[in-house]
Design goal:
The chain is α+β, with helices and mostly antiparallel strands. The chain has helices at 13-17, 41-57, 131-135, 138-150, 174-177, 196-206, 229-232; strands spanning 2-3, 8-10, 22-25, 64-68, 76-78, 87-89, 94-97, 102-108, 112-118, 123-129, 158-161, 171-172, 185-188, 191-194, 211-214, 238-242. The strands form three sheets. A seven-stranded mixed beta sheet has the order 1-2-3-16-8-4-6, with helices on one face. It has a six-stranded mixed beta sheet with strand order 5-7-10-9-11-15. Strands 12-14-13 form a three-stranded antiparallel beta sheet.
């Protein structure tokens, strides 16, 4: 675990080797936020300030900011090099950019957070893979979009998978379990448990990605570090940021 002056976060050795600023922030980074629905101006101002603190923690506070409010679907957006700064996206679960002035961020609690990096054109990407996105092949399709739009070789892409609920803890009903191959399911005492991390690793490999890092921490089993919606039924999320 790495620490700034005020916040702690986990990093990928592969991304760090390439000098990519990034972090999967612990729950402490969002602990003080009181969630509101609908959000007040005070809440929105505090959320913006909080997001800026993530950038400061990984030394990219001069970057513009794109925040992805996860839609729990499988829609992918390529912002390219000329993205507007300091925007919030509400319809996507994966975003790409090749701008060196933009940081991409999202928040999560149990679903699989993925960072992508292609060093040749310095493309960065974020993927939020819940069961719907995973079933829709979002990790594989995001790599395919990188190949199509930027003509890159997938073997050069680095993927870093952050903390997520593990295959021993993610219980699902039959309707969800039936969508996935047997190798991703564990049956225990008549209950179905789904391994979304393994499913997404296989998607990345199928798309041609050879360099895959994983921070092997289960959010359900480690709520002292990360939020878990399944365990805590909380609206709070932990942040994932790459720049």
């Amino acid at each position: 675990m790495d620490k700034s002056k005020t916040l702690s976060y986990f990093t990928s050795p592969l991304l760090s080797k390439h000098g990519v600023p990034h972090g999967f922030f612990t729950r402490q980074a969002n602990e003080h936020i009181v969630y509101e629905n609908p959000p007040s101006k005070k809440y929105m101002d505090s959320a913006v300030d909080n997001r800026k603190s993530w950038l400061r923690a990984i030394d990219i506070d001069d970057h513009g900011f794109v925040f992805m409010e996860c839609a729990n679907q499988d829609k992918i957006l390529d912002l390219g090099k000329n993205s507007p700064f300091n925007i919030t996206l509400s319809d996507n679960d994966a975003v790409l950019t090749n701008s060196d002035q933009i940081a991409l961020a999202f928040t999560v609690a149990d679903c699989v957070p993925i960072f992508l990096f292609e060093p040749g054109q310095r493309i960065i990407g974020i993927v939020h893979a819940g069961w719907k996105g995973t079933n829709g092949g979002i990790a594989k399709r995001t790599i395919e979009m990188m190949i199509e739009n930027y003509k890159i070789a997938p073997k050069n892409v680095i993927a870093a998978i952050g903390p997520a609920i593990c295959g021993k803890c993610y219980e699902v009903k039959n309707d969800v379990g039936d969508l996935f191959a047997k190798k991703y399911k564990n049956i225990n005492n008549g209950k179905i448990y789904l391994d979304l991390v393994r499913a997404n690793i296989d998607q990345l490999k199928k798309a041609g990605v050879k360099q895959i890092d994983r921070i092997d921490i289960c959010t359900f089993e480690n709520t002292h570090l990360f939020y878990s919606y399944r365990k805590e039924n909380t609206p709070k999320r932990f942040a994932a940021v790459i720049g």
